[in-house]
């Protein structure tokens, strides 16, 4: 027999797999579940979220053109470099002002600067961060991600941003890949292509930042976790561009990837219970919110006036 929690979870998940669900709706359903009956499969969804996001991102590559992606990547590289280092420096000083521990400050700053939970998961072992420090950083980033997914598309429409502008803004100002792709997909296909390409190029900065972290914090004999799924995305994009036999499969694989992304956001929302949100405390949210607001407004201003 199914319990009430399992039945509600199953119904919500099935709805997220239908054409009527969108990434923001899926996240909202997950949040509703977390605040009411709760997630009955917490351990399973945590593991599945990571894998499903990776496969979904690879699948999106089958709907993209390598030539357009290179152009988008060139356009976003200067924004990427300036915003990453600016965020890390600002995070250091704001964190010091708030009196937060160096590890928590660096994890939240890296999550904001690069790619949310993936960056935190990669940088944490380099820092030899404690479990509670990782939890605080991840909780902060995931809550702000949820807000961004709902807030960005209406702002983009209100400012009459082009598909290219909005995709670039999402890639720079939203932390996690899942929310970047979700917000961009809600705005349009071109925004999705630009956002995914720039965000994944940005995610590769995990490697130099992790190496810099090990030197700055004087950590020895640590392994850097490389986001290999990015190379899967690149491979899928190259196949779709240069192998004609693959192109007919592109629409199907892209459709399945978008469904996978929608389910991923449902799982993320289902993990954000009130207890998780409260456990973080106020100061990490202040740090995360300040960094997020600064990078969002600064990048928005530059993109609107320069792109």
Automatic annotation (TrEMBL):
Q: Does the keyword Transcription regulation apply?
A: no
Primary location recorded for the protein, binned into one broad class:
membrane
Q: What is this protein called?
A: Sulfate exporter family transporter
- Which residues are the signal sequence here? none
UniProt GO cellular component terms: plasma membrane
Q: Does the keyword Transmembrane helix apply?
A: yes
Which PANTHER family does its entry note? INNER MEMBRANE PROTEIN YEIH-RELATED (PTHR30106), UPF0324 MEMBRANE PROTEIN FN0533 (PTHR30106:SF1)
The membrane-spanning stretches of this chain are: 77-98, 104-127, 134-154, 166-188, 200-217, 229-247, 259-279, 285-304
**Membrane topology field:** Multi-pass membrane protein
> Which keywords has UniProt assigned to this entry?
Cell membrane, Membrane, Transmembrane, Transmembrane helix
Where on the tree of life does the source sit, at the highest rank?
Bacteria
Q: Which Pfam families does the annotation name?
A: Cons_hypoth698 (PF03601)
Q: Identify the InterPro entries for this entry.
A: UPF0324_pro
Localization recorded for this chain is: Cell membrane
Provenance organism? Hymenobacter coccineus
Q: Which protein family is named in the record?
A: Belongs to the UPF0324 family.
């Amino acid at each position: 027999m199914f319990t009430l929690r399992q039945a509600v979870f199953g119904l919500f998940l099935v709805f997220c797999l239908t054409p009527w669900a969108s990434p923001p709706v899926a996240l909202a359903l997950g949040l509703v579940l977390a605040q009411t009956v709760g997630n009955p499969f917490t351990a399973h969804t945590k593991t599945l979220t990571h894998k499903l996001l990776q496969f979904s991102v690879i699948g999106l590559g089958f709907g993209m053109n390598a030539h357009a992606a290179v152009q988008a990547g060139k356009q976003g590289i200067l924004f990427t470099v300036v915003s990453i280092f600016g965020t890390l420096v600002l995070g250091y000083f704001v964190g010091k002002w708030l009196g937060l521990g160096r590890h928590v400050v660096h994890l939240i700053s890296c999550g904001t600067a690069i790619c949310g939970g993936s960056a935190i998961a990669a940088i944490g072992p380099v820092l030899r961060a404690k479990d509670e420090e990782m939890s605080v950083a991840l909780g902060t980033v995931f809550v702000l991600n949820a807000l961004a997914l709902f807030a960005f598309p209406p702002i983009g429409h209100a400012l009459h941003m082009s598909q290219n502008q909005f995709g670039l803004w999402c890639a720079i100002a939203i932390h996690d890949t899942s929310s970047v792709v979700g917000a961009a997909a809600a705005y349009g296909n071109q925004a999705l292509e630009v956002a995914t390409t720039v965000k994944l190029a940005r995610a590769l900065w995990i490697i130099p930042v992790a190496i810099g972290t090990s030197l700055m914090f004087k950590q020895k004999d640590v392994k850097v976790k490389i986001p290999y799924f990015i190379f899967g995305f690149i491979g899928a994009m190259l196949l779709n561009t240069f192998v004609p036999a693959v192109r007919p499969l592109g629409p199907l694989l892209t459709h399945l990837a978008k469904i996978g992304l929608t389910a991923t956001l449902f799982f993320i929302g289902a993990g954000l219970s009130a207890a998780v949100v409260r456990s973080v405390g106020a100061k990490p949210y202040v740090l995360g919110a300040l960094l997020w607001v600064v990078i969002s407004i600064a990048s928005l201003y530059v993109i609107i006036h320069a792109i």
